[in-house]
TrEMBL record:
Pfam families xrefs: F420H2_quin_red (PF04075)
Origin superkingdom: Bacteria
Catalytic activity: oxidized coenzyme F420-(gamma-L-Glu)(n) + a quinol + H(+) = reduced coenzyme F420-(gamma-L-Glu)(n) + a quinone
Family affiliation: Belongs to the F420H(2)-dependent quinone reductase family.
Gene3D superfamilies: Electron Transport, Fmn-binding Protein, Chain A
Protein name, UniProt field: Nitroreductase
Amino acid sequence: MSLSLRSLSLWYQRKTNERTVARIRKKSGSMWGMEMLILRTTGRRSGLVRETPLSWFADGDGWLVVASGGGDRNPDWFANLTARPDGVSVERHGEEPVAVRPVVLDADERASAWDRVVEAQPRYAKYQKKSSREYPLVKLVASA
């Protein structure tokens, strides 16, 4: 049986995500010096629930997340979130999931938020410099 490199990479990413999600739930919401959350989206094609561990940054009444993975394209979780924004929730260590409304930041909002992200975690500036695309920033606001 021959697997394409993309299929193998996707399998590895999903397995790593599963392990990281389990760690966030059982042990801690902090990894690699960053606060982590579990983003729950619905697959845009499959309709299946997807859980993605992401670092987050406080932003007033919400959480900022950076769509930095995915190589030369946006990560799958971002495509799922924008295609199906109604079923999105976040879960943090020791807390129940919270339904959220995702807001993709426009240029002005993004510039200000990006400065705060790279001040808190300079590694994101390094990642951005290596990428050919501008990373989208998403604010996740708790739904009423």
